[in-house]
């Protein structure tokens, strides 16, 4: 039997009042049911400053000056696969996510990945842009992006949090399950081949 797939679930939103954490809590068990051992990397908690490494990661080869970079690098290196959970901001994906990508470089090469975007209409523009960047750094995006739609009128409470995150994710359960299964199977195939 293959070892369990270690999956890093990245919460891309770093705002003090946000919904990414609520969605991550609902997506995590779907990944686990597909056979993943999930670690959550919440960019709000990681608190990476705007990129402050003196050398670009592509040139430093993973020899980083700062402890926060080594922590982030270690999380990615220790994972067999990465699931990016990203909101859409103004037709793109957030600066927090781009910043997190730009901190590293060799870590992304060949890393199996999955993208889950969200927004009023599913955040597809942000998801597509992030996919293009992750492919540029040679990430191995293994399934179509999943887009979670959050209609503003029905999804949010007066506190700007989701009223019922479980139902929001439930509407996309089939796509999420299918993508999670593809990701875990892909990791298994890589492990067998390696
Ligand atoms: C700066 C900003 C820009 C936004 N732009 C979009 C957008 O282009 N399309 C969309 O569907 N929602 C947009 N929204 C709404 C977000 O998708 C929604 O607030 C979502 O909850 C953001 O994720 P978060 O709460 O985890 O940060 C925007 C929100 C913010 C804060």
From TrEMBL:
Residues forming coiled coils: none
Superkingdom assignment: Bacteria
UniProt cross-references to InterPro entries, sorted A to Z: Flavoprotein-like_sf, FMN_Rdtase-like_dom, NAD(P)H-dep_reductase
Chain ranges of the NADPH-dependent FMN reductase-like domain: 6-143
Gene3D superfamilies per UniProt: 3.40.50.360
Name of the molecule in the record: NADPH-dependent FMN reductase-like domain-containing protein
Native organism taxonomy: Bacteria, Bacillati, Actinomycetota, Actinomycetes, Micrococcales
